[in-house]
Amino acid sequence: MRSRGAGVEAAAREHLLGAGLRMLAANAAARFGELDLVMLDDDTVVFVEVRYRRSARFGGGAASVDAGKRRRLVLAAQQFLAMHREHRDAPCRFDVVDASGDPAAPQLRWIRDAFRADDA
Question: What family classification does the UniProt entry report for this protein (predicted)?
Answer without folding.
Answer: Belongs to the UPF0102 family.
